[in-house]
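[job 4471] stage=fold_predict status=RUNNING
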Amino acid sequence: MPARVVEKGQLGNSAVVELIIAKFCDHLPIYRQMRIWERDHGLVLDEALAGRHVLAAGRLLEPLARFFGQKLKEGEFIQADETRVSVLQQKARGAMIPHGSGNTPNQEAWSISIQIRQQALPASQLAKACDYLLTQWKRFCVFAADGLVEIDNNWCEPERSGDGPPLGCPQGERSESKRDASRRHGRKNWMPLGTQHSGPPVAAIMTVLASAQRASINIRLYLAHCLEKLADRSFTTDQIHTLLPENWKPQTP
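[job 4471] inference complete, writing structure tokens
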């Protein structure tokens, strides 16, 4: 019998997976899910109980999320979005990872930017662009000095936590309209965490879901597999690499 997310808990693993998918991929808060369960299935479940199961799943996923972080650090650089996440009335620390240090600004480019700014109309879009470039000059110099660094984070911005990650959109359907619709539906629906101590489990859940999506694998099946393995007391940390998305293979009947 598969190990349960919550030992002797009232919800089985499949129910916990559905709660997580609906909350973080489909942007349905738990209280809405409870209404749907009661309406469609006649199931009456306490919202707090459901929330505890979701957080328990997140705590199980924390070692896997940390392992993802270790693998990221093996790369040549890390590019991150600095958006902060609110937890009730307290704000979690944002993360902006510097991409290098000690770069000498290109004086010629700086001079040209200053000249363009002086010639531009004060309220024009060109003036705003110059102002932004000049205030971000040190970061721009890092971009100019290293061909691996991208000039912006537009590729990951739609998935940033502050706007509600569009985890439900398949990779092939990530048009701007679908991104915008996903952000509108997801904004703040996933953000109520209960307490600041809920932050790490929620971050772990989102890390695992986003990693699965980027690998173009079945999020639901992958999440269920990870939770089952991590809940098993015989599963050891030296086996955690087997849970990387690139190592996962769906079980055949």
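[job 4471] summary: Confidence is low (pLDDT under 50) at residues 88-104, 160-166, 168-177.
[job 4471] exit 0
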